[in-house]
Amino acid sequence: MSAYSALTAAGYRAQVRDKTTVFFTFAFPLIFLVVFGLVFRGRSVEESGFSYLSYTAAGVLSWGVANAAVFSIGFTLMQWRSDDILRMIRLSPAPLTAVIGSRYVLALGVGLVQSVLFVGVAMLPGFDLVPDSRWPLLIPVLLLGITTFLLLGVIIGSVADTPESVAGIANFLMLPMAFLSGSFFPLDAMPDWLQKVSMVLPLRYLNDGVSAALTGRGDLSDIGWGALGLVAFAVVFGAVAARTFRWTKSS
User: Fold this and answer.
1) Is Transmembrane a UniProt keyword of this protein (predicted)?
2) CA–CA separation, 109 vs 69, rounded Å?
3) If we measure between CA atoms, which residue out of 223, 83, 245 comes closest to residue 155?
4) What backbone phi and psi angles, to 5 degrees, belong to 124?
5) Phi and psi for 128 in degrees, rounded to 5?
6) Contact 127, 206 (CB under 8 A)
7) What is the mean pLDDT of residues 21-32?
8) β-bridge mates for residue 51, sequence order
């Protein structure tokens, strides 16, 4: 427990001191919300009748939370391995669960702050997002989403050995996934074949769950389907992460 607390406190201090990380974690997704909100203000998607904001607010929130989880653990594991911190932790009584668990708690805290800030801005005059009555279901969906993408970040942080490679791999996965999963543009307005391709992407399930819970687009089955999809990907990513994790550059 002492190792877990020390790692969590150290991770928190490192995160809040890095102004660049704070900006891209909290401000960057809000920029997307403001841009899309102004561009598509008052417009709706013909195929569904829902406003563009109901799509983009939920989608950008999902992408922001997932992005933060991937990058935070990916960069941390790479840097700690490069600085031999992981090797020293391995030689100490601290278990691997303390390392991953400390980052998990931080990711949950970041996701909570992101969600509150994001939804608060989306409810301001000019954006006028009205959360659906089942918005509390957003909490378990985001919890599953953070878990899934944190495990994806563990894989990236385990195979990458430089900051450039972490950023390259993460962006290669997350940016196309955002477009193909409907984070930035409604899937309802995309071709059928592209909607089918999105079914093999974990962000699609997070988008669907968040959208159904936050804006009421869809029903409870959409939330359940999104949650099941995230659980399935979490199991797969967890198994791969367990096999790829490295304490040092060589092992």
Assistant:
1) yes
2) 11
3) 245
4) -70, 155
5) 60, 35
6) no
7) 79
8) 44
User: Over the stretch 59-90, which tens digit does the pLDDT of each residue have?
Assistant: 889 999 999 999 988 988 898 888 888 888 88
Neighbours of 49 (CB within 10 A): 10
Residues contacting 152, CB < 8 A, separation 6+: 69, 70, 173, 202, 237
Q: Which of 64, 152, 74 is nearest to 112 (CA)?
A: 64
Do residues 26 and 113 make contact, with C-beta atoms less than 8 angstroms apart? yes
Please report, as a single letter, which amino acid is at residue 217: R
CB 187 within 8 A of CB 198: yes
Map tokens 């911190």 to a residue: 85
Residue among 196, 181, 197, 117 nearest 149 (CA): 181
Interatomic CA distance for residues 137 and 158, integer angstroms: 32
Tokens for 171?
């962006």
Token pair for 146: 């953070």
| Strand ranges for the chain from DSSP E | none
For residue 45, give the 3-state DSSP assignment.
coil
Look up the pTM and report it. 0.87
CA-based end-to-end distance of the chain: 26
Residues 64 and 11: their CA atoms lie apart, in Å, by: 19
State both tokens at 20.
Answer: 């660049």
Longest dimension (CA), the chain: 60
Residue 74: C-alpha distances to residues 4, 102, 141, 162, 231 (Å) = 18, 14, 22, 10, 20
pLDDT at residue 210 is higher than 80? yes
Residue 177 CB neighbour total at 10 angstroms: 19
Amino acid in the structure at residue 32: F
